[in-house]
């Protein structure tokens, strides 16, 4: 089973005081650490597990700059066989552009499955995987929490609302967007890191791919980014249950709600 996994390197923003950049359209990232996108980490692990069970190859693909090879090397250390980085230059990237670049990159490769994360930690749009499937004309499923290949099909489990799962069959080749929790990503060992150094990592320049300017023109524009307003924090209500209930009713009435 040949599997392609699309991954991304994202800024680590947890427990960090964020600042809006000079243009007012993004956050300052120069002082932030970068890691593999959390959803993509699960996608790589799922691909490697499927390869270990069914054979085949795993290829990790990333649209990004030289620094982004860090996450490709991590994927190789986890068990991927080879990696591809597409160099976008100074172009602005949105989900539309990234999906077009990935589609052009993957179109002539052999694969039974393409895996992506459900979404990315930085933009949270959840659109690249689905748009890529449309570009390639593939069957697809989103928010997948289980995959069981069965011949030319796969039995998949999809997370729905309210803690409900849907189990269905999908025809291969297909694209699946992987949800966190589908597995437990493995620890990257020193031995895996050493092996990764010997594996193939190729670089493609987007200018050499034959894409049109329309394909490389973003379709979404961020007009302004602002930080949430500071608040006074939560009011902690203490006392016996009847006193707490009375205070809650009082607050609700003060907010203009009739009960």
What's the shape? globular
In the sheet with the most strands, the strands line up as: 9-8-7-10-6-1-4-5-11
- Runs with pLDDT <50, length 5+? none
Q: What CATH architecture would you give?
A: 3-Layer(aba) Sandwich
SSE ordering? EEEHEHEHEHEEEEHEH
Reported for the largest beta sheet, the result is: 9 strands, mixed
Count of the domains: 1
User: Please, what is the CATH homologous superfamily?
Assistant: HUPs
Calculate the mean pLDDT score and round it. 93
Q: What is the helical fraction, as a range of percent?
A: 25-40%
Structural class: alpha/beta
Cα-atom radius of gyration: 22 Å
Write a structural description:
- The structure is a single chain.
- This protein has six helices and eleven strands.
- It is an alpha/beta fold.
- It has one domain: Rossmann fold.
- The strands form two sheets. Strands 9-8-7-10-6-1-4-5-11 form a nine-stranded mixed beta sheet, with helices on both faces. It has a two-stranded antiparallel ribbon with strand order 2-3.
- β7 and β8 form a beta hairpin.
- The N and C termini lie far apart (60 Å).
- The mean pLDDT is 93.
Summarize the helices and strands and which ones pair or pack.
Elements: E1 3-6, E2 9-11, E3 34-36, H1 38-54, E4 58-63, H2 69-78, E5 82-87, H3 95-106, E6 113-117, H4 128-136, E7 139-150, E8 153-159, E9 165-171, E10 174-178, H5 190-196, E11 200-205, H6 241-254
Parallel strand pairs: 1-4, 1-6, 4-5, 5-11, 6-10, 7-10
Antiparallel strand pairs: 2-3, 7-8, 8-9
Helix pairs in contact: 2-5, 3-4
């Amino acid at each position: 089973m040949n599997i392609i996994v699309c991954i991304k390197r994202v800024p680590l923003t947890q427990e960090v005081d964020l600042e809006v950049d000079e243009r007012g359209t993004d956050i300052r990232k120069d002082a932030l650490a970068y890691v593999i996108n959390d959803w993509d980490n699960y996608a790589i692990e799922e691909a490697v597990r499927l390869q270990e069970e069914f054979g085949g190859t795993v290829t990790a693909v990333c649209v990004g700059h030289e620094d982004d090879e860090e996450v490709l090397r991590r994927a190789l250390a986890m068990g991927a066989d080879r990696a591809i980085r597409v160099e976008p230059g100074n172009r602005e990237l949105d989900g539309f552009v990234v999906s077009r670049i990935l589609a052009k990159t993957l179109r002539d490769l052999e694969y039974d499955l393409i895996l992506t994360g459900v979404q990315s930690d930085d933009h949270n749009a959840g659109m690249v995987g689905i748009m890529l499937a449309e570009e390639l004309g593939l069957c697809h499923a989103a928010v997948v929490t289980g995959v069981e290949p069965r011949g030319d099909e796969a039995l998949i489990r999809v997370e729905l609302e309210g803690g409900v799962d849907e189990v269905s069959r999908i025809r291969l080749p297909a694209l699946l967007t992987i949800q966190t929790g589908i597995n437990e990503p493995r620890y990257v060992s020193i031995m895996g890191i050493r092996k990764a150094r010997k594996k193939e990592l190729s670089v493609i320049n987007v200018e050499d791919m034959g894409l049109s300017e329309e394909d490389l023109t973003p379709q979404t524009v961020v007009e302004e980014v602002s930080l949430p307003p500071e608040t006074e924090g939560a009011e902690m209500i203490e006392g016996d249950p009847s006193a707490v209930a009375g205070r809650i009713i009082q607050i609700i009435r003060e907010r203009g709600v009739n009960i």
